[in-house]
Design brief:
Strand content: 35-45%
Strand order of the largest sheet: 2-3-4-6-5
Order of helices and strands: HEHHEEEHEE
Oligomer: single chain
Number of helices: 4
CATH class: Mainly Beta
Structural class: alpha/beta
Length: about 130
């Protein structure tokens, strides 16, 4: 086997491992910011670069009203309403049954997750209900 083929095999194996590795939820991680969905969205729309520096890869507890709950790639996604045009998009680390039994539309919730940035909406990953 050539060195190039061996390197390619190692790279593919690493990629498969990283893709399939389960994410750790934010449950046991220290909360760095407690904020409302309106304030978080406003921070990103006012100064995306500044908000990235402040919130990116930080664990947040976000309080807001549930606008919708959907499933994406077999994981529940909770959308928290904001006063702006977008939402706080929370990719949950919990199973769908737990999320659907605990949350309903138009009810206030607190969701803890890691901020992964802004792309029309503020995105949180590895989220749990608080």
């Amino acid at each position: 086997m050539s060195v190039t083929a061996l390197c390619l095999l190692i790279a593919v194996a690493w990629g498969v491992y990283e893709y399939s590795r389960p994410h750790a939820s934010a449950q046991d991680k220290k909360t760095e910011f407690i904020i409302t969905s309106d304030s978080l969205y406003a921070a990103f729309t006012a100064d995306e670069t500044g908000a990235d520096k402040k919130f990116m890869n930080k664990v947040l507890e976000v309080k807001g009203v549930v606008q919708d709950i959907t499933i994406s790639d077999r994981k529940p996604v909770v959308f928290l309403r904001t006063e702006g045009a977008g939402v706080i998009n929370c990719l949950m680390a919990m199973d769908s049954a737990t999320v659907y039994s605990a949350l309903k539309k138009n009810v206030t919730a607190i969701i803890k997750g890691k901020c992964s940035g802004f792309l029309m909406d503020v995105n949180l990953v590895d989220c749990v209900l608080k």
